[in-house]
Amino acid sequence: MRPVRLAEKLLQIRTALGLSQNEIISRLGLGDALIREDVSAFERGVREPPLPILLKYARIAGVSTDVLIDDELNLPERLPAPAKYRMGIRRGT
Predict the structure, then answer these.
(1) In 20, 22, 31, 64, which residue has its Cα 20 to 30 A from 41's Cα atom?
(2) Considering the chain, what is the average pLDDT of its residues?
(3) What angle do CA 85, 87, 93 make, to 5 degrees?
(4) What is the mean pLDDT of residues 2-7?
(5) In which element (H, E) is residue 73 found?
(6) What superfamily in CATH does domain 6-88 come from?
């Protein structure tokens, strides 16, 4: 079982923050652990990031990891999200 929308959400976070793939690596504090090709693979759904990396994505986006993993939840329109959106928004609402 894999989250279907994870790759889409990771790309959405990076683009909403106006960052390149190299810049997201730096923002995540993973310059020594990731390369641009890793981010590309995450965003295309070829690979899933390890849980600690998902946690870092969630923190820079201002959302709960549930929002990244749960296909029924959308990211807030504005990122990083204000505190009241940490739990995400149900799809279709």
Answers:
(1) 64
(2) 92
(3) 75
(4) 96
(5) strand 73-74
(6) lambda repressor-like DNA-binding domains (1.10.260.40)
SS3 at position 40: helix
Question: What is the pLDDT confidence band of residue 82, given thresholds at 50, 70 and 90?
Answer: confident
What are 28's two structure tokens? 């995540």
pTM of the model: 0.89
H-only helix segments in the chain: 6-16, 21-28, 36-44, 51-61, 65-69
Helix (H) or strand (E) holding 90: strand 89-90
**Alpha-carbon gap, residue 26 to 43, rounded angstroms:** 16
Which residues are CB-neighbours of 76 under 8 A, at least 6 positions away? 63, 82, 85, 88, 89
Question: Which residue is associated with the tokens 């889409």?
Answer: 8
